[in-house]
Amino acid sequence: MKVFVVSDMEGVAGITKWQQVTGGHAMFEEGRRLYTGEINAAVRGAKAAGATEIVVMDCHGAGEGWTFNSLIPEELDPACEYVVQNEWTEYTEFLEQGPDAALFVAMHAMAGTRDGVLAHTVSGSSWSRLRFNGVEIGDRVGQAGIEAEYDRFLRGRNGAARVEVDALGNLTDTLKRELPIQGKQLRLSLDLDVQQVAQQALAGGTGKGAFAVMNVQSGEVLALGSQPSFDPNVFTKPITKKQLDALTSKDLGEPLLNRAIQAGYPTGSTFKLVTATAALESGHITPSTPLSDPGSLTVGGVTFENAGGVAHGVLPLPQALTVSSDVFFYQLGRDMNEKGMPLQLWAHRLGIGRRTGIDLPGEQPGRLPTPRWRNSWYKQKLTDRPWSVGDNINLSVGQGDLLADPLQMAVAYGAIANGGRVLRPRLGLRIEDSTGRALQELDAPTARRIKVSEANRQAILEGLYGAANAPGGTSTPVFEGFPIPVAGKTGTAEHVGKADQSWYVALAPYPNPKYVVAVTDEAGGFGADTAAPMARRILAALLDVKETGLVQGGGAPD
User: Fold this and answer.
1) Where are the alpha helices (DSSP H) in 267-370?
2) Which of 7, 70, 269, 324 does the annotation list as catalytic?
3) Can you name the residues that pair with 395 across neighbouring β-strands?
4) Beta strands 160-165 and 171-178, pairing class
5) Which range has the worst mean pLDDT, 6-10, 449-453, 533-537, 539-543?
6) Mean pLDDT calculated for residue range 34-45
7) Beta-ladder partners of 534
8) Where are the domains of the chain?
9) Which CATH architecture group holds 187-245+253-558?
10) 269 carries an active-site annotation
C-alpha cells in the first residue's frame, strides 16, 4: 500500500520573515521539531496500517527574501521518502500519482508574533481508524512495543455467522458462516538466552539501567532491555489507576520507560569513540599524533582534569583510548570548536541526536548539543549562558548536555566495527503461520554509509582492544581470563548531586567484531565497577562461554 503524508505549517509568513531578520527564533525551531514529531506519528500509523511505501510531502513556503521548510528532514522517520513541494498546485499533481491513501497534517502558527508558534496540531489519528478497521469492542490489539508495530500481522480476523430466527428469537437456520482467521506469528531476532542473561545481569546492579545487543553486520537486535521492568500481562485486563501510577512513578523507577531507546543520558568516556572519529576524519590528528597529558587542561580560566588527577604523559590516540586520557580528548574538543563543528557533524553521522529507526514505537532522538541549540535556549532565558568552548570540551568526553541511550551507542560503535555502515536496528525478521512456516521475509532496512579511512578505523579499534586487554587498560582486570578477544570502552558519566553512572560498550570477537553490547547502570559508579562486568556476562552468553555470574568489577578510573 502506497501512502502520501502531506504536511503544511500554516500562517508562518510573519514568523518566518521575523526569524530571518533576527537570525533565528528558538520557539519557531521548536515548533518545527514538534511538527516533525507529529508527522512521524502519522508515518508510524501508516506503517501500522500496512503501508509499504510512505512519501512525506513538505510544504515549502517562500516570500521576498526568505524560504522555509516546515519539517526537519534529518529527524524524520527513516522509513519514509521526503519530498519538498513549492506550490499548492503541486499538491494536486502529487496526489494524482495514485496513492492508496493520503493524510493531511497541519500545524497552525500565530503569524507575525514573536513568541507564538503553536495554536494546535492535527496528528495522524485518522490512521487509528484505518489500522483498527474491523476491530470490535473487546478485541485485543497491539497498543505498545513490538505488538503495536506488527499488529496488522498478529491480530487475525473475527469469525461471523448470519442466522435466521423466528419471531421469538429462536434459531431456525444458519444462512452464512465466516470462519475466524488466526493471527500470524512474528519471528524476532531476539536470542532468548541472551535476553534472559542480560536482564539478570542488569538486575544485579543498582536498579535502573538498560542494555542493547546487536549484530554489527546485519543490525539484528539480539537483546534489548530496561530496568526496572514490568509484567506486560497487567495490560491483558482493565488496568487500575493504582497499577498505572506504579508503572509511571518516578519513585518506583518509571517501569514503563524503555531506557534502552527512550532515556537520554550523558555517556561518559564511551563517547570518545565518536570524538576520535571526528578528530581523525577532520584532519586534526592522525593515529600517531602525540599529545601531552599533564593531568589537566586550562581553557578560559577553567581547569579540566583527568579522572583521579592522573597524568598520562605524551601519548597517541590508541593509547589515549586504552587508558582513557580525558586531557587528550579535552584538547580535541577544544580544537574542534570551530566553523563546521566537526565533532557535532561526525556525532550526527554516527547516529547521536537522532532516532536509530528501530521497529519499535516511542523511540526518542536524545540530544546532541550544538552552539545553535544552546544559544537559542540562552535567548529564551532557559539557561544561564551562551555556547562556549567549554561545552565542546565537555562533549568530547560524553559530558555536559549530551543525551544518548544504549541503542544509539551500539549503532555508533557498530558503524566503526563494520567499516562505516550506520545500521538501522531491527527486531522483526519474518512472518510465519501457526506451524512456523515462513510466509513473508521482512526486508532488512538499508544502512546509511559514512566514509571512515581504514587506518583511522583500525587505530580506534586498537585503542578499544587495549582498554580491555593491555596493562593500564580501564577494563583489563574485568576481562582477564575471558577466552574470546574483546575490544571495549568504559564510561563514567557524572550527574550533579547524584551517583556516577556506569557505562560499557563492547565489540567482539576482536579484530573482526560480529556483536556490540552496550550497557549502562544509572548509579553504578565507574564504568569498570558495574557496567563492564555486566557486559562480560552478556558476552559470555552470546559467545557460548560458560560463566554463571558477574565477575568482580574494578579497573583504572575513566
Assistant:
1) 272-281, 317-323, 326-335, 342-349
2) 269
3) none
4) antiparallel
5) 6-10
6) 77
7) none
8) 2-130, 134-183, 187-245+253-558
9) 3-Layer(aba) Sandwich (3.40)
10) yes
